[in-house]
Amino acid sequence: MTELKEQAASLSVEGFFDEATNSITYLVADRATRFAAIIDPVLDFDPVSGHVDTAPAGRVLEAADAAGLKVVWVLETHAHADHLSAADHIRRKTAAKLGAGVGIREVQEVFGAQLGVEDIKTEGADFDLLVVDGDRIPLGGLEIEVIATPGHTPACVSYRIADAVFVGDTMFMPDYGTARCDFPGGDARQLYRSMHKILTLPRETRLFMCHDYKAPGRDQFAWETTVGDQLDRNVHVGGGVSEDDYVAMREARDATLKLPKLLYPALQVNIRGGRMPPPDANGIRYIKVPLSQA
Question: Distance from the CA of 188 to the CA of which of 5, 70, 164, 169 falls in 20 to 30 A?
């Protein structure tokens, strides 16, 4: 317990909210050694013009520089479907290593085939490190524990550092609930079990969300809660909701949802670890969108 308190005291967490995508990027650091990791970094993308802007990632890097931090890891909780990842941009700026869950290979294979993308390295070679449940990643004097939390996607992992867990899209703030499970490889029953891996941690464990959408009745964005709050108040799983009841609710709700607006642009970049599609013969890079016709 004393060791955990010492680690928690050395852990610095700063969240950067990107309102355009309702996403939060985290800059986490060991105060003692000044080593840092950036979790789930965001690029700004205008789907009308095709313009990509690194400004959101730039703000995180500026904060790291101002604090005298050395960024040694860029970590993805999953292949995001609602924003483009700045992971490769940050890797090139800092020489940090890029890590993601080993399930990214399955996502690469499915969407690479669907989109006819020939340069996707489906063995995960766009990433420097593919992690599995129980892996431990050094961060200065701290340690990042990998918790596999699939269900939203096969690639989902959460990262536990001292008394904090970065849960990706495993769950949202208690008043908003949980993530959809209708993407290829998603599974509501699996997500329920993944969430409860997190919810068995001590009640005071801090949980950091990947997104916030301001649930009805709440005026401010928020992205930090606790295991205890989720157990008591989460509108989808709080209060002891059973696995079968959760699955029935989640599948019925998912059947009403539209695809995220940035699904295809995001995945084409994110399964490449944030790398942009290669240019065509004319030197211009393109995003592919599969067409369907009624």
Answer: 164
